[in-house]
Amino acid sequence: MLYKFKSKVTGDVIMLQPNGRQVLEIIGKDTQIGSGDKGIILPEQIPAAIAALEAAIVKEEADRKAAAAQALARNEPEPYAEAIALRQRAKPFIDMLRRCEKAGKEIVWGV
Questions:
Q1: Which of 18, 20, 29, 71 is the residue whose CA sits 20 to 30 A from 106?
Q2: Measuring CA to CA, how many Å separate 84 from each of 5, 67, 81?
Q3: Which pLDDT does position 79 carry in this prediction?
Q4: pLDDT tens profile 34-60
Q5: H/E segment holding residue 63
Q6: Phi and psi at residue 30, in whole multiples of 5°?
Q7: Stated pTM of the model
Q8: What is the domain count for the chain?
Q9: Range of 72's domain?
């Protein structure tokens, strides 16, 4: 399944299900089967969504650095990390959020 995020002021942002679900969970949207298949982010919810995504990105990067430092201290190889970080996956969506915030428009998916 794909998540296709749409707005009236930007092009669509399409994500594979695991990545779309992760982003939606970070911003506090329901992702349960059936209920998470469609939804809306209202303009007044956008600032909190951006803040939540940025905080998750900072946390992921700090966790990666800490894990690498611990492995180095133990003379072990660096632990496996996803090749594409949350920062890269979420950037198009964050850009969409910012543009919609400026325009006062919502973002929808699954409709």
A1: 18
A2: 20, 17, 8
A3: 72
A4: 666 889 999 999 999 999 999 999 999
A5: helix 46-73
A6: -70, 130
A7: 0.86
A8: 1
A9: 2-109
